[in-house]
Every structure is written in C-alpha cells, then in structure tokens.
Amino acid sequence: MSLVYSGVLSHAPGITGRDHLCENTEKRDELHAALDRQRQEIEASGAEALIVMAAEHFANFFMNNMPAFCVGIGEKYSGPIEDPEWLKIPKTDVPGAANLGKRLTKEIMQTVDTAYAEEWKFDHGIMVPLHFLTPRYDMPIIPVNINCQGPPLTPLHRAWAFGEAIRRACDSVPEKVALVGTGGLSHWPATPDSGKINEPWDREFLGRLERHDKEALLSYTDEGTYRDGGQGGFEIRTYIAAAAAAGGAMDLQFYTPDLPIFAVGVCTARFEIS
Amino acid sequence: MSLYYLQKFLYELNRDESFQEKCREDIAAQFDGFDLTEEEAGALEDGDIGLLYVLGVNGQILMHYAAFLGIEWFDYLELMREGIDKHGQVRDGVYTMTGGGDAFTAEDPNK
C-alpha cells in the first residue's frame, strides 16, 4: 500500500489574504493549529510526494478546453497567479514529481479518462494549502484538478471513480504518496454574499464523510448544492474523491463557521486508509 | 452578449504577466481576437467591476481581476452591490447575488 495519507482542508484565499482583517483571532489560531497538525501528520506518514486535488479557479483551464479531470506531470510549477500582495503568499517555484505523476496517470487512465499537463500555474486553491502543509515548498507536488467551476461540472459519481482510480494508481507504485482534497464546504465566494455560510449543510455533508456513506455523498444534485451550499459548494467533489481514494471513514479534526472573513466554513480532516 | 470572450479576456489577463503589462498600457488595444460587445469593451476599459459582475463574469475570474486592479476586499464587494443597484441582477452564469445585498462578514465596515 503506498497511499499513506488522505485528508481534506479548506483553501479559501481569505485564509491568508485577509488574515489581517480577522477579528476572531482565537478561532483563527485554532485553525492554524489544525493545519499545522495536518502538516505534521503528512510528514509523519513518510510521504515522498503530495497529491493536491484541487478545484482550480481558471488559472489553467477555461471553457475552450475544460477537462473533467487533470493530473500534473510537470518537473516544476509556479504560483500564485494572483497578486502576491493580495494573497499574502510570495511567488515561488514548487517542485513536481514528473516521473511519478506519469506512472500514476497511466494507471488512472485504465478506468478514468483524465487529461494531464506538464504546465500548471497554481492559484490560491493549491498555494494556500501548500503555505500551511509544505511551508518550505520542498515536497514534490502532483497537482490534480476536478472541474468544479465551469458547468457542465464533473458528475459526483465520476469524482468518486476518479478517487478510486487514484487510490489504485498509488497502490501500484513503490513510493509513499499522500493526498489532500481541497475545496469548499458551503460558500458564496467572490460575490456580494461572501461570508455567507450554511452550517447545517456543512455539518450534514461532513457527517456523510465521517460515515463514509457513499450513497448519501453521491446523492447531492448541482441544483440543490447551488441553492444550499452556493457556488463554492460545487467543490465538494474534491472531498468526495479524497474519501473514495481513502476508502475509510473521516476523522473531522477542525470545523468552524465562525470565520466569515475567510468566506467559507473552514475545516481539516483525515480519512482512514482502508 | 459574448460572455465567453469577456471571461476569456480576463482569464488571459489574470494568468499572464506580460499580458497584464500590455493591458496596463492600453487595454483596448488588446481586444483583437475577442468578440466583445460595446458594453463589455467599455466595462473593461473602465475597470467597471459592478458592470462586469452583472454581465455574468465568474466571480473567481472577477475577484482575481479586482486584485489586479488593486481594489480592496470590502470595496470589491461593494462595487458588485452597486453594479446590481445600477444595472439589475446578474444576467448570466452561476455567480448571482442571492443575499439581497446584505453583508455576511462581521468585520465588514459596511455591515
């Protein structure tokens, strides 16, 4: 078995970019502690590379050629594409894992038609997680994207199948690989509704992950998610794929709806690998 | 309405530093190849966040563009609300305003 860690975390740009505007610093510090715990757990897993399964925001993919899935097979990447002063993360290079990425992609493609890319510009969806999880940017990264932005979106059951394919691919290589899915719970990002959070919807979704309830997780519709979880709720695809890759129940390590300046209900969690 | 090309223009701008420099010098001179309406071109030339939002530009694209323009966060949110007040509800896409113009962030000085 070479998938040694699977978890999820939030990536909203406000977590770093609007940290200076946060008034609930006690809760903010709890979030930072949870993210640091996640960093330590990934390091303790012995992972040699980290898959960051993200829901990118038109940094690389547009409606001229939008893949349902994409895996990075580049030697190196760069980011953030956003104004570094706005995101409060300096522009940097990030090492890739080209050879491993190609082998994983070859195996994933046995069951899921994924695109692949040797070029990839990281936006906040990957840079915010890396800022906390690999702050020295010394862990080889394999970026992965699921289309959560440009409708028609990747169907949830295909996101699940993609997660299972990633798991099978990871288990076929000798390297130890960690994976994080990163995206929203409910949120209405980049709109005047920014800061709106539907806590009951978040907790219901998190509960389904905790129970590893595949049927319930795949029962969401885009219409219902848009109504109850906002545009950002479409990013549950990354959590669902991470759950499928892990195969086990989720241990919710942190959740709060009380940091609306970050514009999302933020969480960290780890799955049982089974 | 050519929302596709409007968003594609901003997509290219957001991810390409050399294109950003050209746009800073003369944004209208970069419109060749993008099938924009007069209203869309004007919104880009004016950096009119409110109108771009109403025209349906995806919030993730618009947010990055606002950062490029140096617009502070709460000003960005307010510009979108002003756009709704002036031009009506968002005309296309999935980033419509659903909260009635309310602010949802306690730290929001406008709340």
Topology, element by element:
The complex is a heterodimer of chains A (274) and B (111).
Chain A: E1 3-9, H1 14-17, H2 25-44, E2 49-54, E3 69-72, E4 76-79, H3 84-87, E5 92-95, H4 98-108, E6 115-117, H5 124-133, E7 141-146, H6 156-170, E8 177-182, H7 199-210, H8 214-217, H9 222-229, H10 236-246, E9 247-256, E10 266-273
Parallel strand pairs in A: 1-8, 2-7, 2-8, 3-6
Antiparallel strand pairs in A: 1-10, 3-7, 4-5, 9-10
Helix pairs in contact in A: 4-6, 6-10
Chain B: H1 3-15, H2 17-26, H3 38-46, H4 49-55, H5 59-68, H6 73-87
Stated plainly, the CATH topology of chain A is called Protocatechuate 4,5-dioxygenase, Chain B
Domains of chain A, number: 1
Q: Which regions of chain B contain 5 or more consecutive residues with pLDDT less than 50?
A: none
CATH classification class of chain B: Mainly Alpha
Helical region count of chain B? 6
Mean pLDDT of chain A: 97
Approximately what portion of the residues of chain A adopt beta-strand conformation? 15-25%
Q: What class, by secondary structure content of chain A?
A: alpha/beta
Helix fraction of chain A by DSSP (H/I, runs of at least 4):
25-40%
Largest interface: chains, residues each:
A-B, 40 and 36 residues
**Uncertain ranges of chain A:** none
By CATH, the superfamily of chain A comes out as LigB-like
- Give a quick account of the main beta sheet of chain B: strands, pairing sense, barrel closure: none
Helices and strands of chain A, in order, run as: EHHEEEHEHEHEHEHHHHEE
CATH architecture group name of chain B? Orthogonal Bundle
Number of strands of chain A: 10
Taking the alpha carbons of the first and last residues of chain B, their distance comes to 34 Å
What percentage of the residues of chain B does DSSP assign to strands (E)? Answer: under 5%
Largest sheet of chain A: 8 strands, mixed
Task: Give the neighbour order of strands across the main sheet of chain A.
Answer: 6-3-7-2-8-1-10-9
